[in-house]
Amino acid sequence: QAYTVVLPAAGQGKRMGAGHNKQFLLIDGVPLLIHTLRVFEGDSLCTSIILAVNEKETEEIQSLLKEYSIKKVTAVVIGGRERQQSVFEGLKAADDGIVLIHDAARPFITATIIHELVEETKRSGAAIVAVPLKDTIKLVSEDTIEKTEDRTKLWAAQTPQAFWLSDIMAAHQVAEDKGYEGTDDASILEYSGGKVKIVKGNYENFKVTTPEDLIFAEAMVASRRR
Ligand code: CTP
Ligand code: MG
């Protein structure tokens, strides 16, 4: 089953504090964004890649695509102020069928998990990659614990998240019209009453977010090379 992937890459990388978009930082000498693109470039089921980028970074990204021979990018669209808007812009450039939405900042997703996700989406209509929480989660008000959540039912949502294009487009339109701000794309579909399945992923698929993540990322590349 073929799919399109939308990669939101129009953030600022504020928590990384690198002074520019974190996706240009080098991991093992190669830009973070390229690591992520290579996964999809190398997956035969992926028919096209859509990038949502900051307008002022468009040229830099186009030249990276050339330099690293990334050939599946069919559209580079301008992202929005929030991730949700960047994704919606990307979806507008996607072809009908199954669409994956994947953070540009998660370079360690594997084709195996992507294929499990695509299969589950074919069966159920919508699915996301997620992992069971390792930490105990506390609901806190003003430094005091109000409640300890039941960890056995808590999962951390990752990406990719996969949908039929028409379903997720319609849900994004509803969210935009109603001013609903979701923190991921599953929550956007849930808001419209959609049901979303979980595909168990792994902890290697972390999002490069804060400075120490660069140390983990270097270690991941080294360990996969062994
Ligand atoms: N993203 C986007 N458009 C936005 C905000 C985020 O396309 N307006 C993208 C980022 O480029 C990233 C992904 O969404 O690949 C996940 O977001 P996050 O990890 O939060 O990245 P940033 O928003 O760049 O980082 P920060 O929140 O620390 O500023
Ligand atoms: Mg962000």
Automatic annotation (TrEMBL):
Site description Positions MEP for the nucleophilic attack, residues in chain: R151, K207
Reaction catalysed?
Answer: 2-C-methyl-D-erythritol 4-phosphate + CTP + H(+) = 4-CDP-2-C-methyl-D-erythritol + diphosphate
According to its UniProt record, in which pathway does this protein act? Isoprenoid biosynthesis; isopentenyl diphosphate biosynthesis via DXP pathway; isopentenyl diphosphate from 1-deoxy-D-xylulose 5-phosphate: step 2/6
* Record GO biological process: isopentenyl diphosphate biosynthetic process, methylerythritol 4-phosphate pathway
Alphabetic keyword roster: Isoprene biosynthesis, Nucleotidyltransferase, Transferase
Task: State which Enzyme Commission number(s) the record gives.
Answer: 2.7.7.60
Please provide, alphabetically and separated by semicolons, the GO molecular function terms listed in this UniProt record: 2-C-methyl-D-erythritol 4-phosphate cytidylyltransferase activity
At which residues is there a site annotated Transition state stabilizer? R15, K22
Q: What does this protein do?
A: Catalyzes the formation of 4-diphosphocytidyl-2-C-methyl-D-erythritol from CTP and 2-C-methyl-D-erythritol 4-phosphate (MEP).
Family under the similarity heading: Belongs to the IspD/TarI cytidylyltransferase family. IspD subfamily.
Supply the name of the protein: 2-C-methyl-D-erythritol 4-phosphate cytidylyltransferase
Recorded source organism is Paenalkalicoccus suaedae
Q: Which gene encodes it?
A: ispD
